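Budget justification note: compute hours in this period were largely spent on complex prediction jobs such as the one shown. Inputs:
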Amino acid sequence: MSQVVHDQEVSDTGQEQLISAEHSNASLTSKIGDIVLKQPSPKQWFVALGFGLIGLSGLLVSIAWLLYKGVGIWGVNIPVGWGFAIINFVWWIGIGHAGTLISAILLLMRQRWRTSINRLAETMTLFAVMCAGMFPLLHLGRPWIFYWLFPYPNALGLWPNFRSPLVWDVFAVSTYFTVSLVFWYVGLIPDLASLRDRAKKRIVQVAMGFLALGWRGSASHWYRYESAYLLLAGLSTPLVVSVHSIVSFDFAVSIIPGWHTTIFPPYFVAGAVYSGFAMVLTIVIPLRSWYKLRDLITIDHLDWMARITLVTGLIVFYGYLTEIFYAWYSGNVFESFMMANRMAGPYSPLYWSLIFCNGIAPQILWWRAARRNIIVLFAMSLIVNIGMWLERFIIVVTSLHADFMPSSWDMYTPTFWDILTYVGTIGFFLTGMVLFVRLLPAIPIAEMKHLLHQKMHGHSHEPEEAKA
Amino acid sequence: MEKGNKVNPADETRGPSKMPEPRRVTISELRDRLKNGDPGVWRSLEEIADDEEVKAFLDQEFPRHTAPWMGEMDRRQFLRLAGASLALAGLAGCRIRPIKEIVPYVKAPENLVPGIPKFYATALTLGGYATGVLVESHEGRPTKVEGNPEHPASLGSTNALTQAMILELYDPDRSQALTRDGRYVTPATFESDVKARLRRQIATGGDGIRFLSPSGSSPTVERLFARLQERYPKLRRHYWDAVHRDSVYEGARLSFGRPLEPVYRLDRANVIVSLDGDFLFEGPGSVRYSRDFADRRRVRKNSPAMNRLYVVESTMSVTGGMADHRLALRPSEVEAFAAALRSAIRDGASGSDAHGAFLSAVAQDLIANRGASVVIAGESQPAAVHALVNEINALLGNYGSTVQWIEPVVNPESRLESIRELTADLQDGKVEMLFILEGNPVYDAPVDLQFGEAVRRAGFSVRLGLYEDETSARCRYHIPMAHELESWGDSRAFDGTASIQQPLIEPLYNGVSPIKLLAMLLGDERSEREIVKETWQLAGLGGSAFDDVWSATLSKGVVPNSAFVAEDVSVSPFTAATSRASSSLEVRFKPDPTVFDGRFSNSPWLQELPKPFLQATWDNVMMVSPRTAERLGIEIDLSAVVVGGLAPVAELTVGGRKVKGPVWIVPGHPDDTVTVTLGYGRELAGRVGNGAGFNACQIRAQEGSWFAPASLALTGEKAQIALTQHHYSMENRGIVHEMEIGEYGHEEHDAAHEEMSLYPDREYDGNKWAMVIDTTLCTGCNACVAACVAENNIATVGKDQVIRSREMHWIRIDRYFDDLDNPRYVHVPVPCMQCENAPCEVVCPVAATTHDGEGLNMMVYNRCVGTRYCSNNCPYKVRRFNFYKYTLYPGTWDEETPVTKLLRNPNVTVRGRGVMEKCTYCVQRISAARRRAKKEGRPIRDGEVVTACQAACPTQAIVFGNWNDPNARVTAEKTEPHHYVLMEELNTRPRTGYLPRFRNPNPALKEAR
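Corresponding output:
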C-alpha cells in the first residue's frame, strides 16, 4: 500500500476538481482512516484541544455559578428579557443548518461536491445544536424544571401551552437533533466498518466493530443502506427549512416592533445557511491544511461553499432592506422608530457593523479569485460568523430595549458571565470537533470512493439510477 | 427506644462504616450493657452515653442532635450560626403575645379568627402631625397601614412615608438594647444612675436639665412635661426639626401678633396660588389637601369644571408639577413676587417687572374669586413672604372660607433660636443633664452650631431613639425607643384633631416610648396606657361616660370634636421693606421626598421609591435647570433614547463649607438655583442607609436654613445614580391625552369596540374587574407604589440592581415632559393593564400566565419556569422578574432577617428566584371580598374591593370595580367621553383605562403657557 501524500493545492485548471486524480480506493481509505488509526496528531490539534478545554472549563464554571446564583448574573433585565442566551441559541442553531443542508438537500440535488465535507458539516451540526440547546435551558429562571415544556403525562393534568412558539421550539430543536444524529450515524456505518477492518489495536477493533453494527459490505447491506440514507435525507430536508422558521417564530409571533414581521422565516433560514457555510469554511480551511487534505477537500469545494455563502448572504441582505422598507412603508410609529433607533440609536455601531459584515463584505465573493483565495475566504468566513452573531444581537436587543413604552426603555449590557458562557460554548464546540477529527473519519471514505468511481468511470451507482 | 428495637443486630456487619473509630454499637448491645449495670436507675443511660461508641451510635441515630461541626469555627460559620440564633431568638422574642401564650390556642382569643385580619385604628406622626391610620394585623402581626377614613388628615389615604412606617417597625437595624458609652447595660443601671442625678437637681430646681426633641403634638407628653416642670421649675425644653416651620409661625406673629397655624379649605377654592409651597406633598395636612384639591379638579360628565392652580416656586415640586401655570424663580426672588402680588391686589397696580403678565393675570384671577381663592406660602420662604401672603388672603376675604387660623398644633417656638440657646448653654457648661428624645440633631442641626461637639460638653446625656445613630454616638446613654406602632400615645393632626395611638404589637426590641421614659423620670410606675387614659380623663373626654367614649375613640381612631376651633384674626399689614434678591447662584434645601430628613434613611422601600421628577433611587442629587447646567458645562443628554444614570459630580460651596454630590438636570427647575434634599449622607443610619448620597446638612447653617447663596463647580468625577426611567418623551405615542378643560365633551371618543378578531369575544357574566386612572389627578407622589410594595410583599433589590433595571415595583409612575426650559409634566401610574387579549398569555410555554373567568390576567408563580417571554411581549412592560433571590438579596439585607418576615402579607405568595411577577389587581383582596359575599349570599358590592394603590392614593385618582355592574363607579368612569386605553391600536384591550390630563389654563396667559 503506497502512502501517497498529495498536499499541494490542486491547480486551477478551470475543470472542477473534487478529488485529485492520483487517488485509488486504497489510498483514500488509508489517507482518511490513518488520521484516526495511525497518524500522530499534529501539534495544532493539541493547541486546538487545549483552547477547547479551557473554554469548556469556563462553560462549566459559568453554568455552576449560574445555577447557584440565578440568571441575574447575566445582563438581562426588564425590558431586555432575552440577551446573550437567546442570541447565542439562534446563532448556534443557524450554524447547524449548513450540515443538514449539505447532507440532505445537496444529496438529493446530487451535488457531488458535498461529499468530502458533509461528514464534517454534519458533526458541526450536532455540536452546534448541542451548544444551542444549552441556552434555552440555562436562560430559564428555574432551569431545573425545564421538562415542564415537554408534553408529558403528569399528576397536574397540565399540558404545555401549545400556542407558545417556545413549545414549538422544543419540538423543532429536539427533532432536528435526533434526525441529524441518526443521519450522521447511519452515514458513518460503512466507514466504521472500514476502520474496524484496518484497526490493529483490539480496543479500536471492538469499539469500531460495535459501532459498525455488523456491517460487512454485502450488496444487500449497500442496497438497504442507500435507501435508508436517501430516506433520511428526505426526512431532513424539511427540517432545514422548518427549524429555523420555528426559531424565527419566537420573534415573529410576538408583537414587538422589529420582531413581528412575516419576512422572518425565510430570512432566518437563509441567514442560518449563510452562517452555517461560513462556519464550515472556518473549520475546513485549517483542517485541510493540518491534516494535508487539500486533495480531498479541494479548492473547488471551497469555491462552491463560497458561492452558497454569497447567495444566502444576498438573501439575508435583502431581508435587511425589506425590514427598512416596511418600517417606512407601514407608517407604524413603533416600527419606524425601531428602525431609526437601530440606525442612529445607542446600538447603531453594531447595526452598521452588521451591515458591513453581512451586506457589504460578502460582495467580494462575486470574484472567482477571491473565492479561491484561502486567506480571503477564511477572513470572510470569520466576518460572516461575526456578522450573523451581530444580526441576532440587533434583533434581540434593539427591538426590546426601546419598544412601546418610552418610560421603560433601557440598555442591555452583557456581563462577564454572559461572555464566559458564550466563549464556553465555543470551547465545548471546539473540543467536540477536535475530538471527532481524532476519533472518527472526518471525511466519508465510502462516499469518496463513489466519487472516485464516478471520476474514473464517468458514472455512478446511486440507488435511484439503479432503479431507473 | 421503640425505634431502636427495629434495628437489626445484623446491621453491625452490614455495610462498611467510613469511620472505623469508634465502633458502632447496636441497640441490643446497649440493652445488654444496661442490664449488666444498674437496671433500676435510668440515669445510667446518661452514664453509658459518655462512652465514645454510644455517642457514635446516637449521632448515627439522631443526626439532628449531633454537634453541627467538629472543626474550628471560622468567621463565616460564626456569622451563619449567629444569624441562625438570631432567627430563632428573633422569632421567639417577637412577643406577638406575652410569652406564656406562645402555645397553640387551647382557648382561642375572643374575636380572633385565624386567617382573617383585624384592623386597629391608631395614628402615625411625621413632624409631630398625626395621620390617622388603620393597621392591618394578622394574628398579632401588623402588616399594612391604611388610611383611616374617619380621620381628617387621611380620609382613607396615606402618603408613601406613612406606608413605609410599618417597615420601620420591623427594621432589624433598630437599636435593641440600652447602652452606656456603647456598651450594654441593664435598664436598672440606667434608672438608678439617672434617678440619683435627678435627685441632685432638685436643689437647683432642675437648672441643669435640658430636653431636646423635635415637634410633637402629644397631650400626654405635654402633661408629663408639665409635671416634670412642677418638680424642676428651671428645667428647660428645646426643639429642633430639620424640616422646621419657623417662618410660618413668625409670619403669623408679624400678621396677627401671635403664632398661629393656617388650615386651608381647598375644597372651597376656585383659584389656588402657591408661593413655593408644596402643599400637595409636604407639610401637615398634605394628604388631606391633595384630596380637597383633587375633588375640585375631577372632571366628569356631571361636573365638567376644575379649579386653577398657579405655582411660583424655587425648585421642582410635586405641587409645581400639577400647576396650570407655573413660574420658576430663584428662592430669594419669591419675596419680591409676593410683595408685587400684594400691591397688585391691594392697589390694583399692574406688575411691571419681568413677570408682569403672569403676575397681573394671577392677581386678576384672585380678585375675581374673592373668598374662593387661596394663596399658600411655603415653609421654606421667610416670614416676610408669609406675612405678605397672610395680608393677601385677608385682602381677598379668604379668611373664614378658604383659610382658617388655629392655635399651633406643635410648639411654635423658633427651632433655630431654640437649638442655638441649647448649644450656647452646652458650651457654657450649664447643662448637667441632657435628654434628647427622638430626632437626630447631631446629624441635622445647623452645621455652624457644631452641635455634635457641644453635646459632649453635657455632663450627662441620654438619647432616646429608634436607631443608635449619629446622635446616640455622642451621648452617654442610648435607650431604644418603642415605635409608634408599639406603644400607647396620642397626637394631633394638622387641624388639631386628636387621636389615641394604640400599640399593635409588644415592643419588638425592648423599646420604651417617650411617655414611658418621662413617667420613669417622674417615678410614675403606671403603664403608658393608664397614663394616656388619664390625660384624656383629665381633659374631660366623654364626661361621666368616659369608658364608653374612650373605647369608641379607640375603635374610631379620632377623639370626637377635638379639632381646634378657628381663631378670629385681624391682620396688620406688612410694612417692612422686602429684602432684595441675591444675584448669585442659590442653594435651596428641601426635605427629601422619600427619606424626608433622614429618619427613613434605613428604609429600603423608601430608598428604592423613585423620587418625583428625578425617577432616581437610593441617592440624593443636586438639581439644576438645563440652562444652569449648560452654563456649568454639564453634559447630560436628556433627549437620548436611553438616558444613562452617569452624573457629573460637583462641589457645592455655601459659606465656605463644601459638599460633593452628583448633579442632575431637572427641566422646570429655576435657573441659577441648586436644589439639594436632606436626609442623605448618613453614617450611622443602618445597613441600608449608610453611605447613600451626600449630606446636605454639612452646608446648611443657621443663616440660610432653607436657601443661601452658593457656588457650584464640577470636579470632573462621575457618579452612577440609579434611575427607574430613562426616557422622558412620550414620542407622540398618546400615552397621556392632554386636553384643556374647554375641550371637554368635544370630539366624543368612539367607545364602541370594533370587532377585530375572527373569534367571538369571551363572555364575562360574573364580575368583570376593571380600573380607571385619572391622569388629571395623579400628582406623582408615589404613595400607590409604596402601598403596593407593602401589600404585595414586593422585594427591594438594591441600588446595583436598579441600575441594572431590575426594580420590582408592580405599579410605577411614569413621568413625561415636553420641553426642557418650560416643561409641562404628566404622570401616569402604570399597573398591569390586565389585557383581554393579553400578549403575555399566548407566549408562555408552560401556561403560567392565564386568564380567569373575571378577566384577570393571572400569574401562577408555581408554574413559572422563567423564560421571560411574557415580559418581552408585554407592550407596557409591567412584568417584573426575580433575577436573583430578592427576598434576601444582599444589596438590601446582608443576611436572612427573620423579623422582616413578620411583615409579610400572608395572603400573597412570596416569590422565589427565577419567577415572573406582576400586578394582580390585588387578587387577594378580591378573593377576600368574594368569600365574604358568598357567605352572605350576595354579589360583591361596588367599592368592596379596594386595591392597595387605590386606597392609598391621596387624590383618589384610581377607581376599581366591576365593569359588569352598571351602577359601579368604574363603569361610570369607563363611559366618560375621553376615556382611553394605552396603545389601543395594539388591540390588547386593556381593562385598565385612563382619563385624560385636563388643564385649566388662564385664557389671559395662554400664550405664555
